[in-house]
Write a structure and sequence with these properties.
Low-confidence stretches: 159-165, 167-174, 207-245, 249-255
Mean pLDDT: 76
Distance between the termini: 58 Å
InterPro entries: Uncharacterised_FAM23-like_TM (IPR020394)
Radius of gyration: 30 Å
Helix content: 55-70%
Number of domains: 2
Protein name: Transmembrane protein 236
Organism: Oryzias javanicus
Strand content: under 5%
Order of helices and strands: HHHHHHEEHHHHHHH
Keywords: Membrane, Transmembrane, Transmembrane helix
Structural class: mainly alpha
Largest sheet: 2 strands, antiparallel
Length: 388
Amino acid sequence: MGSGRMLKFAICEVLQFAGLCLPLFIVMQRFAAIVAKVKTSARPPGDGGTAYWLIVASSIAYVTSAALLVWVPLKSLVFMKKKFLVGRKKWRPVALVYVILSTLPCFAFLIASSEVQINNNMKHDTFTELPVSLVLFSLICIDVVERIRHCRLTGQANEINRDAEIPSTVLTHVEQVTPMTQISPAVPGPAVPGQTVPNPAQPGPNRLNDRNQNGTGARPESNGTVLGVPGTNGRPFTISGLSPPPANPTAYGLSPYTHTGPLRFLCASDARADVFVDSFMFWMDTVEMVRVAGHPLVYYSGWVFPIYIFSYVSCLRVVVMPHSPLLSSMGVALQDLPFFFVRAGLIAFFGFVTPILYLLKNLLICLAFVYFNFMTKLRVFNTERVFF
């Protein structure tokens, strides 16, 4: 058991460190090649080899310094479970440091490569697949490793892990709930010596509180059951007493479908596999935006600046935990709203270099967020009483 954990720990750390180093090395090497070509083709020609190796050596020095001074100390503090880093479990410090140390320099050198070629009337390299397939794939790997490293990689997912924010598909604890019956009016019986019999005609403070809370004398219990509601036959109701809570088996981590029959293998599902799907879907909009920057018409223009800048800003969403309520507002503010204006400008200047589907996606998400979170609270849109 111990050797398996150490092996998983080593694999996770190697993958994360490779995701930190490889994009930087490759992007800076390609940038060094562009600078060397510019030096060679200049008038008078310069020493392109010296410029090339100087940039390569600088990239090695940067990665080494960042790893020794920031990455390794941060990892040590995280594994020591320092409270200021992992105490509240609302953000991911490793993802934040990766976005600052790796993604930011890569996007900066991609912009610098475009400017160097534009200023020297060159069209040598547009980095078509590099930012999409390498930089963002490394960012996705960091996200996946951070979410799945605390889970078992063998056997079935039979435990809930809050650190990884992965829901369990197995019911781990069920308590039997005894159905409550409606309380009938008590019939006065013989008085017991030493016992005070309450008079129904004179309601005490508890009865008054119950009547004030429910209006009909119904008393809510701690489990959500309302007693004394006519016609309920003791069925559990919500606090409002309007409708019974739906029987939702997914609230306990169970599937509402029965996996039976010869094709039950088609219903196979595992939360650990869903992590990969969620991580890739989380980055699809950013991937498409960065892909547009590799188009020759766009790359050799000033539009490369807003594309890479807003794409990097959207990457900051990875700092928040996967199921945090902040992701909704951050997605609109850091991604959909700026991406909508950038895509509208790209389509206006260059035509349909980006699919209009993503433009509609950004627009509809922004409108839906504003409407359902703010406008529905206004009096003119509050039609709850009409349908009540």
